[in-house]
Amino acid sequence: AGNAATALSPAEGAPAPAAAPGAPAAPAAPAAPAEGAPAPAAPATEPALVPAGTQPVITPAPAPAVAPASNHGTAS
Fold it and tell me: Which of 36, 40, 46 has its CA nearest to residue 12?
């Protein structure tokens, strides 16, 4: 976690590099905001840094997928 925090500072300094690696992670979302303007890049940086701890970011995505599965199980 400590390393991640440290990476946040450098990442802010150079959002361009972070955007490159972050873009591949989730180009769909960043792509639209990125086109809008560099301002969106700042918010996008947060997600990019989160990928370092993909667990939190991925958790929300898979959560919905698991929810339906749980419903079926409950129905049974």
Answer: 46
Tokens representing 34 are 């990125």
The position carrying tokens 């997928």 is: 65
The mean pLDDT of the chain is: 49
The DSSP code sequence of 40-75 is HHHHHHHHHHHHHTHHHHHTTTHHHHHHHHHHHHHH
Q: CA 28, CA 22: separation in Å to the nearest integer? A: 11
In terms of Cβ atoms closer than 10 Å to its own Cβ (0-12, 13-18, 19+), residue 75 is exposed
> What is the pLDDT confidence band of residue 25, given thresholds at 50, 70 and 90?
very low
Q: Which amino acid is at 69?
A: A
Cα–Cα distance between 48 and 5 in angstroms, integer? 13
